[in-house]
């Protein structure tokens, strides 16, 4: 395990033909060239051409590194975040640390090199409102730090095995695919929701977030002398989902089904009937809250646009669904006749779904691939019941996200109810212990 704070590479944007921004402090780009102020970088003939103010060419090459003279503060214009989600938008974002521009086949990749604790301060501020309870911020800091460094350790361990990010098993009757965070080959994590939402110092990092990072600095969830791969999602829907049904098939003892409640009567759902009854009900759970004060405290403004996260409904006409599935999967099913859950996880999330059409019938999994195919962005979760009425498919669902690990809304309610950060993380990550490693 680690003994000192790592520095990480965060991919801010990828595949831009042109990148512009502002260097708010002095940076070195060569041993004797120091720059500041506005800049513009353009892809030309496979390399980056860097222009300063008044379009004066400063440097060209496959990679350009801006090394800060002091703390290093810079702004990148028109960064898209929430990519392919319903809250996707664009904004100028400001970062601290080193800046790298790398020419790749499809455009320029922008990378921010930053220390883990500074990165986490931004993540906590991006994921949570500045008014979130301190114990929630501390719990989230421990969770995010653990996931991040576990991922770094995993990349080192398996660096000789090639790219494991997209695993696909495909036959004539079935396509099962899962995605993970290791698909970024030239940086450690992306800045978007695919990894953890990171917006640098664009938003003022609240005193509370800084304090939560400081109070938990170097503290990790650990299981059997390894840092836990601590996942989180917005709302589990009442029961969390285990790791192995969502990603690799190897079970992790600290990522098993957990009721989002102090009650222990919620056993993992064993059958389709149990799952349907669960999803169509509104059980007692920490994340089953409509308390606007709590949601405003914990959710950034754009996440507050989603109000039906615990139980939700989506509906499509047969024609709409048939066109959507064709577009998102690239497979022509013809007219979709039925959606049949084949296998579910313990939280009710569908891990195998049979799509029956007039031209093609295929089983698709895992949960994220199902969510991709059944929405223009991402379906809230794969925990849903299929109902067909005349010419309409109605999906009634539960939860927001993959449901593995920490339930953010559930953890927030726990914090409001007086649970301490240690109690919160140990509730969702059973069998794990807390250790301070640096």
Summarize the structure.
This protein has 438 residues and is an alpha+beta fold. The protein has helices spanning 116-127, 134-157, 207-216, 243-246, 272-279, 292-298, 318-329, 367-373, 408-416, 421-428; strands at residues 7-16, 18-30, 33-44, 47-51, 57-61, 63-68, 73-81, 89-96, 98-104, 107-115, 166-170, 174-179, 189-190, 219-223, 226-227, 232-233, 311-317, 336-344, 350-357, 361-365, 384-389, 392-398, 406-407, 433-436. Strands 1, 2, 3, 4, 5, 6, 7, 8, 9, 10 and 13 form an eleven-stranded mixed sheet that branches. Strands 11-12-20-19-18 form a five-stranded mixed sheet.
How far apart lie the N and C ends?
10 Å
* Quaternary state of the chains: single chain
Count of extended strands: 24
Approximate strand percentage: 35-45%
Q: If you compute it from the alpha carbons, what radius of gyration comes out, rounded to the nearest whole angstrom?
A: 23 Å
| Spatial shape | globular
Note poorly predicted spans.
161-165
Count of individual helical segments: 10
State the helicity in percent bands: 10-25%
Average pLDDT score = 91
Number of domains: 2
Which structural category do the helix and sheet elements fall into? alpha+beta
Major beta-sheet overview: 11 strands, mixed
């Amino acid at each position: 395990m680690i003994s000192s704070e790592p520095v990480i590479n965060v991919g801010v944007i990828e595949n831009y033909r042109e990148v512009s921004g502002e260097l708010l402090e002095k940076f070195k780009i060569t041993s004797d060239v120091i720059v500041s102020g506005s800049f513009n970088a353009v892809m030309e003939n496979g390399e980056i051409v860097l222009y300063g103010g008044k379009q004066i060419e400063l440097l060209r090459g496959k990679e350009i590194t801006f090394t800060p003279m002091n703390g290093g503060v810079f702004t990148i214009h028109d960064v898209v975040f929430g990519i392919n989600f319903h809250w996707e938008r664009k904004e100028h974002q400001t970062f601290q640390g080193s800046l790298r521009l790398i020419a790749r086949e499809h455009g320029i990749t922008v990378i921010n090199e930053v220390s883990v604790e500074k990165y986490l301060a931004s993540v906590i501020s991006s994921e949570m409102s500045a008014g979130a309870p301190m114990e929630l911020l501390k719990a989230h800091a421990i969770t995010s730090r653990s996931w991040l460094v576990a991922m770094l350790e995993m990349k080192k361990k398996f660096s000789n095995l090639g790219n494991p990010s997209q695993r696909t098993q495909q036959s004539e009757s079935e396509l099962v695919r899962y995605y993970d965070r290791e698909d970024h080959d030239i940086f450690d994590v992306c800045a978007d929701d695919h990894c953890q939402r990171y917006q640098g110092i664009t938003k003022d990092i609240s005193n509370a977030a800084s304090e939560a990072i400081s109070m938990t600095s170097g503290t990790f969830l650990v299981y059997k002398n390894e840092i836990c791969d601590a996942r989180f999602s917005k709302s589990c829907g009442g029961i969390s989902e285990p790791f192995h049904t969502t990603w690799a098939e190897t079970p992790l003892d600290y990522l098993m089904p957990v009721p989002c409640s102090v009650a222990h009567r919620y056993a993992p759902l064993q059958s389709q009937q149990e799952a349907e009854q669960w999803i169509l009900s509104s059980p007692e759970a920490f994340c089953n809250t409509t308390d606007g004060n709590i949601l405003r405290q914990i959710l950034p403004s754009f996440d507050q646009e989603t109000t039906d996260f615990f139980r939700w409904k989506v509906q499509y006409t047969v024609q709409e669904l048939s066109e959507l599935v064709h577009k998102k999967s690239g497979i022509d099913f013809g007219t979709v006749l039925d959606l049949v859950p084949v296998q579910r996880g313990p939280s009710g999330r569908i891990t195998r779904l049979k799509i029956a059409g007039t031209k093609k019938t295929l089983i698709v999994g895992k949960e994220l691939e199902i969510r991709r195919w059944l929405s223009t962005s991402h379906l809230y979760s794969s925990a849903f019941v299929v109902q067909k009425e005349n010419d309409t498919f109605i999906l009634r669902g539960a939860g927001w996200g993959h449901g593995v690990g920490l339930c953010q809304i559930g953890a927030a309610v726990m914090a409001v109810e007086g649970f301490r950060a240690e109690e919160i993380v140990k509730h969702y990550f059973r069998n794990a212990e807390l250790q301070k490693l640096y």
